[in-house]
Amino acid sequence: MDEEFVDFSRSQPAVAEGAEGDRQFGEEGARLTYGSYLRVEQLLSQQVPETSPPAHDELLFIVIHQAYELWFKQLLHELEAARNAMDEGRLWWARHLLRRVGTIEDVLVHQIDILETMTPQDFLEFRHRLAPASGFQSVQFRELEFLSGHKDPGFLQRFKGLSAEERARLDRRLAEPTLWDAFVGVLARAGLPTGDDAEVSASLVTVARDRGTYGDIWELAEVLLEHDEQQAAWRARHVTMVERQIGTKSGTGGSSGAPYLRSRLPMRFYPLLWEMRGAL
Ligand code: HEM
Ligand SMILES: N[C@@H](CC(=O)c1ccccc1NC=O)C(=O)O
Questions:
Q1: Does the interface ipTM go beyond 0.85?
Q2: 100 lines ligand 2 (CB under 6 A)
Q3: pLDDT truncated to tens, each residue of the chain (280 aa)?
Q4: Does the CB atom of residue 136 touch ligand 1 within 6 A?
Q5: Contact 137, 159 (CB under 8 A)
Q6: What reactions does this protein catalyze (predicted)?
């Protein structure tokens, strides 16, 4: 073995005694490896093309979407923790996690560049196999919207083919407090009025003008705005990619395609954070 490598396996018997050493073994005493820890075999068996023989670009299409879903999982984990931290008054931790969210969202926006290396004619080689599936059916994407603060139960009716578990997850997201609810709670606990939108707006102006007193809350408002800006950026990039790939065609999910997506572009999670800028 090269000098640069420490051979942990040879030192195993010495450290294996006692509780400390036992942690180096997996459940059945098998030694942990990269592949077993990260379930690489299982992960790499999950990219199954619909076309046969597979269209060249279908693997890229599947991998990109799976990468999105993995990051969506991580975002839900962080956003849920950030909401709970705000509820508990741990504002530093909430801001820390929301900064991470913004960094992940940078990656999500830029992943679109990779998909745009696919030409529309190469997409057409497998697009016909995709209907009626579409990104419209991404449960985690909708969970992210609900948790962030945009709860539109209309999507539940339009969802087809949800498992009972997926439906329960969406119902839970619709019922639980959002990041915005938690943020308004932070304002209220700082003694600022939050009775209705007008009061919240006035409180946001107070926070913005007196950062000496409300610096932590200002910083929190900024990372929430960043989260909102990033989702808007993703939507804007997604729709231009869609126009580039399918032009004026309707979507596999049954919508008008780009016009439907354009109609959703003005959506904001935190309109009051944007409006406040006009009042400064
Ligand atoms: C070639 C690439 C893509 C094309 C042509 C495309 C096209 C479309 C179209 C036309 C819709 C409207 C629903 C329908 O099908 O009728 C849609 C929705 C959606 N797509 Fe894509 N998409 C692409 C890639 C992606 C990727 C990589 C993601 C990442 C997860 C994604 C996520 C979504 C989501 C979440 C929606 C629902 C948006 C909403 O309701 O606001 N799409 N897409
Ligand atoms: N809706 C897209 C197809 C598509 O992009 C798609 C299909 C299945 C699963 C996810 C998809 N991604 C985003 O909509 C289209 O109309 O071409």
A1: yes
A2: no
A3: 566 777 766 555 544 445 554 555 556 668 999 999 999 999 999 999 999 999 999 999 999 999 999 999 999 999 999 999 999 999 999 999 999 999 999 999 999 999 999 999 999 999 999 999 999 999 999 999 999 999 998 888 888 888 999 999 999 999 999 999 999 999 999 999 999 999 999 999 999 999 999 999 999 999 999 999 999 999 999 999 999 999 999 999 999 999 999 999 999 999 999 999 999 9
A4: yes
A5: yes
A6: L-tryptophan + O2 = N-formyl-L-kynurenine
Q: Whose CA is nearest to atom 21 of ligand 1?
A: 135
Q: Is the CB of 240 under 6 A from ligand 1?
A: no
Residue range 54-277 in CATH 1.20.58.480: yes
What is the rounded end-to-end Cα distance, in angstroms, of the chain? 66
Domain boundaries, the chain: 54-277
Nearest CA to ligand 1 atom 6: 242
For residues 64 and 54, what is the distance between their CA atoms, to the nearest angstrom?
16
Whole-angstrom distance, CA of residue 208 vs CA of residue 280: 8
Distance between CA atoms of 33 and 162, rounded to whole angstroms? 35
Which residue in this structure is represented by tokens 């900024």?
222
State whether the beta carbon of 236 lies less than 6 angstroms from ligand 1: no
Q: Which residue's CA is the closest to the ligand 1 atom numbered 35?
A: 135
Cβ of residue 254 lying under 6 Å from some atom of ligand 2:
no
Tell me the CB-side half-sphere exposure of residue 78, using CA atoms within 13 A.
Answer: 20
- Is the Cβ atom of 253 under 6 angstroms away from ligand 1? yes
With CA atoms as reference, report the closest residue to 150 among 235, 70, 34: 235
Q: What is the pTM of this model?
A: 0.93
> Which of 244, 252, 255, 256 has most ligand 2 atoms within 8 Å of CB, for mutation?
252
